[in-house]
Amino acid sequence: MTFETRFLPLMVCAVIAVGSLLMLGVSYWFFVPMVVFGFMTLVGVRDLFQTTHAVLRNYPIMGHMRYLLEGIRPEIRQYLIEADQDEEPFSREERSLVYQRAKNVEDARPFGTKQRVYDSGYQWITHSVQPRHIESSDFRVTIGGPDCRQPYSASIYNISAMSFGSLSGNAIQALNTGAKLGGFAHDTGEGSISRYHRAGGGDLIWELGSGYFGCRNHDGSFNADKFAQRAAEPEVKMIEIKLSQGAKPGHGGMLPAAKITPEIAEARDIPMDQDCISPAAHSAFNTPLELCHWIAQLRELSGGKPIGFKLCIGHRREFMCIVKAMLDTNITPDFIVIDGKEGGTGAAPLEFSNRLGMPLVEGLTFAHNTLRGAGIRDRIKIGASAKIISSFDIARTLALGADWCNSARGFMFSIGCIQAQACHTNRCPVGVATQDPSRSRALDVPDKAQRVANFHRNTMDALKEMTGAAGLDHPSKFLPHHLMMRVKDRDMVPGSEVYPYLPEGFLLRGEEDRFGYLHRWTRARAEGFAPIDDGV
After folding, report:
1. Last residue of a domain, which of 12, 42, 67?
2. Is the residue at 197 inside a domain?
């Protein structure tokens, strides 16, 4: 829908109202349409200038239809939720949870669970008859290994990678301001640090992709001097090397020159008259050993800030190659973020989104147990990013081996994303995923920033209650045996049977395991990544 047609109902109402006013001298019957359409005109004008609802700012008068449909009877709404489960990446139930917490609306529900508790695959957290009282919900984890000189105390729930360019400037600024208000971190995404990332003053995790945006030479290669200058900025708390992305692992990207704005060029340090290429692979290293040495270089250039990498697990042996390189060089990253294939993006081929890459649970447990088997799990923190929306999602992810969680879509919902799935069209109806100024203006930064902080705080409060109910004093105490799952009718198993923690150092001792870790470990080498066609 174009700019003109979006505002057509308002213009029509205004024309009819004014025309009716002028026709009062002909017939008093014109008083009725004058009042009706005059009122609708006033409503439309108010929609344009109110700051609470982005849909109404972009679609005056028409936008009220959405809120009318939201108010239909619960049984009809539940029917829509159930019909929607297999059609959208996130259900209306999940979006509703985020909206309620972002708006500080009570999220208690009457008449029991909405989940199909008797279905195979249903999961739950076990609780204790001696619940614990926890005072604070400000749960944090210190990230920084033995070689880190500036460790970072991070919240266990942060904003995952979303670039400026993919999101509007107002969306980025609202997220960052909310992170500042709530005391948690904001991952910049591959598009580097923009003016909008700095505007809110929130803590930043600078993601460094294969395009080296913000620290590149003209030929696209890595520039150490530019990196050191940007990494020294006080808002930058950690640097994350992106090896692959869950939604499109192994896939590069290209931003056409026609879509490069001055602000994008400024953030990425790229020219405006050339297509911007993000290669599928990095040029700063070719082997696992070179990756480890580059991590050490980045740590030194940054003044000792935490350096880590993010990846979606693909060939499992390749991850083991990197771990073997850590042992050979005695250089370990301060953190590793496991990105599940469930992650979303507006620029992934359908087959990549659906059928390439490892889901979070499998990828997380594999990385966690590989590091345990190599005896270096205590030196490296693990983050996890995928469809992590609720306190249960966080508790389950921590139980399976993560130290903290990141969420992209959850925080997008908190700033008004309605999952219109129009991210790639530049016509986002709520101003979140667009570079169109006439649309992004609908997103009011102060209002949405507060909702970001609300969502984080209320989710942490819910996690606090769940943790206490389980008889624990901190979410980091969740272990696989706290997670239960139904595998079929009348048959349930603890998570410790399905996703166990394998013994520390078992790979170094050459101990066999039922999951095939040792088989891959013996074929992994630090000097290079194994051939793709030589097993996984």
Report:
1. 67
2. yes
